[in-house]
Amino acid sequence: MLAAVAVLGVGAAATSAVWSDQVFFQGDVSVAKFNIQGATGELPATWLESNTWDGTATGLPTIELAFADMGPLVAGQTDTWTGFIRNDPTSTVNANVSAITANTSLLDPALAAQLTVSVAYDVPANAVSVAPAAQVPFTVTVTLADSAPTTVMGATGTLVIQVVGSPVTVP
Fold it and tell me: The pTM is what?
């Protein structure tokens, strides 16, 4: 009897396998891309890549700011410089630029303490959505304190501007 049940069980398993069916679906998958680039000059013509902030890490070095308008600062002097960012024209989604900030950590601490540095761009309180190929200007303002001591005369250093962005989520 047990053998008959075993044979019946095998037959039932074979029968259900014959009666199975499947259906498959497929769809194309694509991954969005965005790429924030930077440029200098009044009418940017050359857009550059950069993914390291100090040029020491592996990757593309920082974009050199040409403070052509800025001569050496004297106490109480304010100078400004304009740069540009864009979302690469080959990007497939907008980029949210959430911050453009100045970093003075590469400056001599005595000099950094005497400088006020600010960065302004179109929508400073909110992320600005940058469409592919769209450009956003930003302005860097540097002021040397009126009370800067003579010990900072002749000081030099590197001011780093960082742009932070992320892709806009596509619904």
Answer: 0.71
